[in-house]
Amino acid sequence: MEPIRGTETIWDLVAERGAASTSQPMLFDQSGRSITFGEFTALCERVAAGLADLGITSGSTVSWQLPTRIDAVVLSMALARLGVIQNPILHLYREREVGFALRQTGSSHFFTVGTFRGTDFLEVAEKATDALENKPVIINIDNGLPEGDPATLPAPPASGTTVRWIYYTSGSTADPKGVQHTDQSLMAGGWGLAKALDMSPNDVGSIAFPYAHIGGPDYLVTMLTWGFPAVLLEAFVLDDALPLFRERGATMVGGASAFYIAYLAEQRKNPETPILPTLRLMSGGGSAKPPELHYEVRDEIGGRGVVHGYGMTEVPMIANGSPHDTDEQLANTDGAPIDGADVRIVTLDGRVANPGEEGEIRVKGPMVFAGYTDPSLNADAFDDHGYFKTGDLGKLRSDGHLAITGRLKDIIVRKGENISATEIENLLYTHAKVAEVAVIGLPDAERGERVCAVVLLADGAEPLTLDEVRSFCQEAGLMRQKTPEQIEIVDDMPRAGTGKIVKRTLQERFSN
């Protein structure tokens, strides 16, 4: 089977794969449901017609917050068939983040579910839209997606260079940033990943991360390009995932370092029996990985080991390892820049770094986003040569591989998700017991980093407990992943000459 590449839009890719691999399995979910590429294409068209009957057109903006299920993938591609601007929202987000996204995008419709993993998402939707002047129509898809007659559909979109995707990311600013993508930028990232991992029709992949993440369409493009299926997980629960992976013969699993560590822990319970007998490699990104993880996975679980990558919401794929890399490269780097990515390292004094010299990672290429929804953010995001400034530090080695060494931005990366310290600080500052607060990320073997709030108490205030902080954040509608997992009460803060709190000193103090 030959790969499909060179289509103008993601819908073109869906249609071509549906015709070429009509009876080939495409998606498996935890309920036992499966769908072929041909069935998927036909269902997307019926749903697109149903959406059109609701008044959704190519001029619409639609948001959705759904678990990783077949219906979520169908909805996103049905919207792609109509040429809609769509705004996938992570199911981790709560009313604060959801409300911000809906207000900024001006979405006409918001698709969600009822209760999922203990959260009433209809309630989240109602609270998020309560204060909006122009409220979107809230649609619960628990009883299925709308369907209609595909014969009534207009022609599919012709251009893949129009902004049709908006993802929100919590970066170094207090408010989330809307990241705009085109079909072409998402496909460039997906193709680069497929080529780096040497994917083929013989693979069985997995989406164990939220499909609403930028990695969702990125991975979907690899599947459509090569015609291989994937297992969908609504949430990564190891005891649920492993039997399903074994049943379907998964060859590629992963997600982030926390996932690799969980697999290792399970394998070590019974070293003689492989937990993933068909494994070809583990892949993922989102956070740094200890070098020894590659060797441990290779030697204890099997396959090629950890073939890690590097990307972000603004650039879905920047670099990725390859199964053909050496063990040293797989252990100590995040791979070479993907096909089409022009990666440059710029030192802090502004010059292009020599091989092996540390500096800020900057990237240019077809996989780079089309700017932020707030255009005022764009000037600082790109340099004078058109390179996107990632805010991450790294080295481009003489062998062409990229090694991530740190970050310039004041963000915390927890399980692959960027968390704004400023946003949490701004919220905690409103607590009556808090005079001043610094939120920092501390190293954590499972999460990558954990969120720690360092608090200077208000005069006369009683001690502030972690339970109080968690309750306060929950009542304010902050997503659980952003809620501090550690609190430290201090008598004073380390400061620079300008009075700014020196967070590095706090990190050094509380990392031990």
Keywords:
single chain; 512 residues; alpha/beta; Rossmann fold; GMP Synthetase, Chain A, domain 3; 3 domains
Category by helix and strand content: alpha/beta
What fraction of the residues are assigned to beta strands by DSSP? 25-35%
Query: What's the pLDDT, averaged over the residues?
Result: 93
CATH topology of the largest domain: Rossmann fold
CATH architecture of the largest domain: 3-Layer(aba) Sandwich
| The CATH C-level class name of the largest domain | Alpha Beta
Provide the gyration radius in Å. 23 Å
How many strands?
26
Care to describe what's here?
The protein is α/β, with parallel strands linked by helices. It folds into three domains: 10-149 and 162-186, Rossmann fold; 236-407, 3-Layer(aba) Sandwich (Rossmann fold); 411-510, ANL, C-terminal domain (GMP Synthetase, Chain A, domain 3). 30% of the residues lie in helices and 25% in strands. The chain has 15 helices and 26 strands. The strands form eight sheets. Strands 13-14-15-16-17 form a five-stranded mixed sheet, sandwiched between helices. The chain has a four-stranded mixed sheet with strand order 2-1-12-11, with helices on both faces. Helix 4 (95-105) crosses helix 5 (121-129), helix 6 (183-196) packs across helix 7 and helix 9 runs parallel beside helix 10.
SSE diagram, text form:
Elements (H helix, E strand, L loop, with lengths): L9 H11 L4 E4 L5 E3 H17 L7 E4 L5 H13 L2 E4 L6 H11 L3 E4 L2 E2 L2 E2 H9 L7 E4 L22 E7 L7 E6 H14 L8 E3 L7 H12 L3 E3 L5 H11 L3 E4 L1 H11 L13 E4 L7 H10 L4 E7 L2 E6 L6 H6 L3 E2 L4 E5 L12 E6 L13 H4 L6 E9 L5 E6 L3 E4 L2 E4 H8 L5 E11 L3 E10 L8 H10 L10 E5 L12 H8 L2
Parallel strand pairs: 1-12, 3-4, 3-5, 5-8, 11-12, 13-14, 14-15, 25-26
Antiparallel strand pairs: 1-2, 6-7, 9-10, 15-16, 16-17, 18-19, 19-20, 20-21, 22-23, 24-25
